[in-house]
Amino acid sequence: MNFILSTFLLALHVSGISGFALPLTPYSRLTTQLKAAESEVSFGDLDGSKVRIGIIRTRWNDEHVGSLVKACRTALKECKVEDSNIFETTVPGSFELPLAARFLALSGTVDAIVCAGVLIKGDTMHFEYIADAVSKGIMNIGIQTNIPIVFGVLTCLNEDQVRARSSASNNHGYDWGKTAVEMALLRSEAMGEKSAAVEQLMAIGFSGKSESADKKKSPGFF
Fold first, then answer.
1. What is the pLDDT of residue 210?
2. What DSSP assignment string belongs to 21-86?
3. Helix-then-strand count for the chain, H and E
4. Which of 121, 135, 168, 170 is the least crowded, having the fewest Cβ atoms under 10 Å away?
5. Are 155 and 97 in contact, with CB atoms under 8 Å apart?
């Protein structure tokens, strides 16, 4: 009976029914945590042979971040991404990731970017401020530049949680690499549809070439 009641209250809370936005009970919190832990993302066959990936990693918590990046590179290799098409650079900490991602996205040299870092909660509110700013910043850069930016920042309460997510048997960096390739391919497909529309306009007399197209030079960033 208690199980049924807890499940019912959880459903009301999640659905946001007016007047029933009850706080989660300890049992309900445990249920949602277990459900999240069991969830998985599956990836199909991804051909990244023509994809360019940027990896921006922090030097803060270097050992853990290095393990995540290694798994990310393993995934990229499985997707046939050439080593020459993988660009990697470092920044001091997670707070610097969004701006560095913007620089790289605007350079036009990559099709997707993985921002990798590790944040571990301490005794102050510093963790909350940084985690919130970084997550929003990374999301905004992707929206502003049309370059997929993968949020590869672990936000953990302690180092044991970090190890559980960056070990050989369960390394989130692997999924970040796969996600970067998938999103790069998705972007390419979307831009291809735009090119098809331009070709249709050219067929009825519109010019598909801007005056400055011939003057465009390779970007100087990175």
1. 46
2. -PPPPHHHHHHHHHHHHH----------TT--EEEEEESTTHHHHHHHHHHHHHHHHHTT--GGGE
3. 7, 4
4. 168
5. no
pLDDT at 216: 42
pLDDT at 198: 56
Task: Find the helix packing angle between 172-203 and 62-78, rounded to 10°.
Answer: 50
- CA separation, residue 34 to residues 38, 52, 75, 94, 217 (Å): 6, 36, 26, 28, 52
State the DSSP H helix or E strand holding residue 100, giving kind and residue range, or none if neither.
Answer: helix 97-107
Q: How far is Cα 76 from Cα 183, in angstroms, rounded to an integer?
A: 13
What pLDDT score was predicted for residue 86?
98
List the catalytic residues: 126
pLDDT in tens, 190-205: 988 555 555 666 667 6
Q: Which pLDDT score is estimated for 214?
A: 46
> Nearest-CA neighbor of 78 among 7, 175, 146?
175
Using CB atoms within 10 A of its CB, is residue 42 exposed (0-12), middle (13-18) or buried (19+)? Answer: exposed
CA dihedral 181, 182, 188, 193 (to 10 degrees): 170
Cβ within 8 Å of residue 43, ≥6 positions away: 175, 178, 179, 182
* The residue to which tokens 């029933």 are assigned: 20
